[in-house]
Write a structure and sequence with these properties.
By secondary structure, the protein is α+β, with helices and mostly antiparallel strands. The protein has helices at residues 34-38, 67-74, 98-102, 156-165; strands at residues 20-24, 30-32, 43-50, 56-66, 82-87, 93-97, 105-110, 113-114, 124-126, 141-147. The protein has a five-stranded mixed sheet. Strands 3, 4, 7, 8 and 9 form a five-stranded antiparallel sheet that branches. Strand 1 and strand 2 form a beta hairpin. It is globular and about 45 Å long. It starts with 19 loop residues before the first strand and ends with a helix. The relative contact order is 0.23. The chain binds ligand MTE and molybdenum atom. Molybdenum atom (MO) binds at residues 51-53, 134-135, 161.
């Protein structure tokens, strides 16, 4: 059994002040705090997490809210097809087809305990897709922007992750 790798936590991450905002092309923007999120039905997602840098964390068990449930509170417009997921540090983001994002889990727990800040707490995206990539598992998720047209920042996360493998 190997663990997730330790990485630095950005200075902007303050769990006490943390909220998640959903906005963009939705009927109404909504904001959730950690208690709001914990009040939704939670589901479990198990996986081995593989990073493009060449390490694996085996047998992880995430628990959290299906993104579809959260989006439902905001009400994406019928023409919405994209979702941009942003981290609290403001630079890290990744866009997804809205359907794939809807079927992902926003994890609040890891292996039966509150998700540690070191690994993305209070909330980390766990994309549920066959072809998911490590950089799509956004830590410290603070905003989901819904859009009817593609986002230009689509590959931000990928570029940041790949630049690290060149160190
Ligand atoms: N906000 C944010 N999320 C992120 C990253 C990041 O730099 N910032 N790195 C990604 C990459 S490339 C990997 S491999 C994992 C690392 O997770 P860990 O720090 O829990 O090992 O987080 C992903 N999510
Ligand atoms: Mo990664």
């Amino acid at each position: 059994m190997s663990d997730l790798k330790p990485h630095d936590v950005p200075a902007d991450v303050d769990p006490a002040e943390w909220t998640l905002r959903i906005g963009g092309t939705v009927d109404q923007s909504v904001r959730f705090d950690p208690d709001d999120l914990a009040s939704f039905p939670l589901e479990t997602a198990a996986e081995d997490f593989t990073c493009v840098e060449g390490w694996i964390a085996e047998g992880l068990s995430w628990r959290g809210v299906r993104v579809e449930t959260l989006l439902g509170r905001a009400g994406p417009t019928a023409a919405s097809e994209y979702g941009l997921v942003r981290a609290v540090d403001g630079e890290y983001a990744c866009s997804f087809p809205l359907e794939q994002l809807s079927n992902s889990v926003l994890a609040l727990e890891l292996d039966g305990k509150p998700l540690p800040v070191d690994h993305g707490g209070p909330a980390r995206l766990v994309p549920l897709a066959d072809e998911r990539e490590c950089w799509e598992s956004i830590k410290w998720v603070s905003e989901i922007l819904v859009g009817e047209t593609p986002f230009s920042e689509a590959d931000t996360a990928k570029e940041l992750a790949l630049s690290r493998t060149e160190d």
